[in-house]
Amino acid sequence: MSNSRTSRLALLLCLGAVTPLVAQDSTECHCRRVDGPPSEFARRSAGSFSFIQSRPLGGLSDNIGFGYGLNAAYLFRLDREGYLSLRTDAGFVDYGSESFRVPLSTTVGGRIQVKVSTNNYIVPLSIGPQLAMPTGLIRPYVNGGIAAQIFFTQSGVEGDDDNYDFANTTNQHDWTSTWVAGGGIYIPVYTNKMSVLIDAGVQYFGAGHARYLRPGSIEDLPNAQIRITPLESETRLALVHIGVKLGF
């Protein structure tokens, strides 16, 4: 009977000693996490981010000047090497602005001044195939497809010490469909798990037709009225860009 009690006591002591070790082993893992390779979709995807300059052509150049903005492009390789890709572009261009300061209201008087700014924008959009040389120190490419150009003018009000509008109005908007063709070069600057390449090129947008404004197209009249005189013409333009392309 004494031996039985001694055996049970020894067993309980062993379980008491082993349980914390098991609990500690289950909560603490010093394993090294190994990230797996990117998926096939990620390997075939790339993005390009660029500064752009819009250069109006034809009738559009008679009415507006150069514009400046940003462009983002997404490319999906249709083959493993990257000779053929599907490319989509979305840009945002400011081609002219004007501003003036006025009192916030006649009730408040001239102590509170606000800035009224009017900006004219183009949003170029496109989608289509791209052919590229995927290797080499200089990698040329050409692309084309269908496109759209959105023109709009927006006025906003901000305080002298503010950096954002607290009220804005779209004064005019229009859009047109067209086609696009372009080309450029990629220059690799870094290649490891992710590749970084300089992207420089130009896109040509064919002749659509739209109504749009420019600085001076909105005239302020008495009694808080305005007169808007839109322009109308073909919308051919070239977008010159330089930026970086990122991908696997």
Quickly describe the structure:
The chain has 248 residues and is mostly beta strands. 12% of the residues lie in helices and 62% in strands.
Q: Can you put this structure into words, describing what you see?
A:
Strands 1-2-3-4-5-6-7-12 form an eight-stranded antiparallel beta barrel. Strands 8-11 form a two-stranded antiparallel ribbon. The chain has a two-stranded antiparallel sheet with strand order 9-10. It has two helices and twelve strands, in the order H-H-E-E-E-E-E-E-E-E-E-E-E-E. It is elongated and about 65 Å long. About 3% of the residues have low confidence. A hairpin with a 3-residue loop joins strand 3 and strand 4. It has one domain: Porin, CATH 2.40.160.20. With 248 residues, the chain is mainly beta. The protein is 12% helix and 62% strand.
Key words describing this protein structure:
62% strand; two-stranded antiparallel ribbon; single chain; mainly beta; 248 residues; Porin
CATH class: Mainly Beta
Average the pLDDT over all residues and give the rounded result: 87
Q: Low-confidence segments, ≥5 residues, pLDDT <50?
A: 9-15
Q: How would you sum up the major sheet?
A: 8 strands, antiparallel, barrel
Shape field: elongated
Helix content: 10-25%
Cα end-to-end separation: 74 Å
**What radius of gyration results from the CA coordinates?**
31 Å
Report strand %.
Answer: over 45%
Draw up the topology in text:
Elements (H helix, E strand, L loop, with lengths): L1 H26 L12 H5 E12 L10 E11 L6 E22 L3 E24 L6 E21 L7 E25 L3 E11 L3 E4 L5 E4 L3 E4 L2 E4 L2 E11 L1
Antiparallel strand pairs: 1-2, 1-12, 2-3, 3-4, 4-5, 5-6, 6-7, 7-12, 8-11, 9-10
